[in-house]
């Protein structure tokens, strides 16, 4: 069978405060929407913005992070997969469908001054929050050039 890929990457803003609930077995679930925008030129040559709204769902620890740090206006980087659920409407009996993004990884990009609820960024796979102003967590090199101070020989190269 051929290899298949179901991966979604989104960078956008939360549309409204997340809805947090628990399943009957106690699993935490967060539902929220994320807006992404595209800019395109119309037939007359004018630039237009188009906003797309995405429904997202997060479970367990990721849902806890959403509960604690995400609110309306938060800027997020999301990695996940797309899924479509179906059910029968109880009133009409019609088949209903909902396509949503199942969140696997989340990074909070906005600080308090941007309308977010957390000053810095957070990725649930990272061990510590990162600075919002500088995503590079390495310490600045001392007065000497790092490349010159890092004595590497041919034996240190693995190939």
Explain what you see.
Helices cover 9% and strands 42% of the residues. It has 159 residues and is mainly beta. The protein has a single domain (8-39, 49-129), classed as OB fold (Dihydrolipoamide Acetyltransferase, E2P). It has a five-stranded mixed β-barrel. β5 and β6 (95-108) form a beta hairpin. The longest helix is centred in the middle third of the chain and has 10 residues, at 60-69. The radius of gyration is 21 Å and the shape is globular. It starts with 7 loop residues before the first strand and ends in a 10-residue tail after the last helix.
Write a brief caption for the model.
With 159 residues, this protein is mainly beta. The chain is built from two helices and six strands. A five-stranded mixed beta barrel has the order 1-3-4-6-5.
Q: Which range does the strand content fall in?
A: 35-45%
The level of helicity is under 10%
Q: What is the class in the CATH system?
A: Mainly Beta
The ordered string of helix (H) and strand (E) elements is EEEEHEEH
> How is the main sheet built?
5 strands, mixed, barrel
- Kindly report the average pLDDT value: 78
Q: Write down how many β-strands occur, each being a DSSP E stretch of 2 or more residues.
A: 6
| Low-confidence region ranges | 114-150
The count of domains is: 1
- CATH-defined superfamily: Nucleic acid-binding proteins
Oligomeric state of the chains?
A: single chain
Q: What structural category arises from helix and sheet content?
A: mainly beta
User: What is the CA-CA span between the terminal residues?
Assistant: 33 Å
How would you describe the shape? globular
Note the total helix count.
Answer: 2
Reported by name, the CATH topology is OB fold (Dihydrolipoamide Acetyltransferase, E2P)
């Amino acid at each position: 069978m051929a290899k298949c890929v179901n991966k979604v990457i989104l960078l956008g803003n939360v549309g409204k405060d997340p809805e947090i609930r628990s399943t009957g077995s106690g699993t935490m679930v967060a539902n929220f929407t994320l807006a992404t925008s595209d800019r395109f030129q119309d037939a007359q040559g004018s630039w237009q913005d188009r906003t797309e709204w995405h429904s997202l769902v997060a479970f367990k620890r990721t849902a806890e992070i959403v509960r604690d740090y995400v609110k309306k206006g938060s800027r997020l980087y999301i990695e996940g997969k797309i899924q479509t659920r179906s059910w029968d409407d109880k009133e009409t009996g019609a088949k209903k469908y909902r396509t949503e993004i199942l969140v696997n990884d989340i990074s909070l990009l906005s600080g308090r001054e941007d309308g977010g609820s957390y000053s810095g960024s957070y990725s649930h796979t990272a061990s510590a929050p990162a600075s919002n102003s500088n995503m590079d967590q390495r310490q600045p090199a001392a007065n000497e050039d790092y490349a010159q101070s890092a004595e590497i020989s041919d034996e240190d190269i693995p190939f």
